[in-house]
Task: structure prediction
Amino acid sequence: MKLSAELKAFAARIGHDFSRPELLVRALTHGSIGSETRPDNQRREFLGDRVLGLVMAEALLASDKGASEGQLAPRFNALVRKETCADVARDVDLGAVLKLGRSEMMSGGRRKQALLGDAMEAVIAAVYLDGGFEAARALVLRLWGERIERVDADARDAKTALQEWAQARGLTPPDYVEIARAGPDHAPTFTIEAQLSTGEAARGSATSKRAAEQAAAKALLARVEGA
Result:
């Protein structure tokens, strides 16, 4: 099997030359178009998730030899969560080469966080099966890049931190109110306002309610801590 020019360009973007091109093709084939003769990437997602976890566990242990398990766990979770995988996928324009069924394509599948995150994990598995663990490790460290260095900031759960801030001052837990929803049904953007009983509030927007709540909590926390 030979890769199309589009897939060759994608392989160049991720920095891996496939000796078995069919592995990449399968990694990019979503279940909406998969079949018995054209297997999809679901099983490869499972493998890629484990490879990613091992690479990140090793990287975190090596980068901070004095960190406790309690410090490492949230950093690890921040680096391997689906949102981060989807962000990495966007960096290499993975959505442009996803193989999707017509209905999934029409509903904006190339931009969906879950599909991008899953496919990124499947690509990691493809590199692992094609070149071994060292090749997969090199790929992950290269694509995740600065995220590993700034993981402390990304690992902080803003909603938890804001609730702890409020409780420490005898306040009730923050409320999260949906202020607006924009965009098409298949790719909405939510605006959430985090509110404290003192009247302090801040807003955040994202493509999922959970992410918008975190953004709002982070903005409000920055405001009250800086006051």
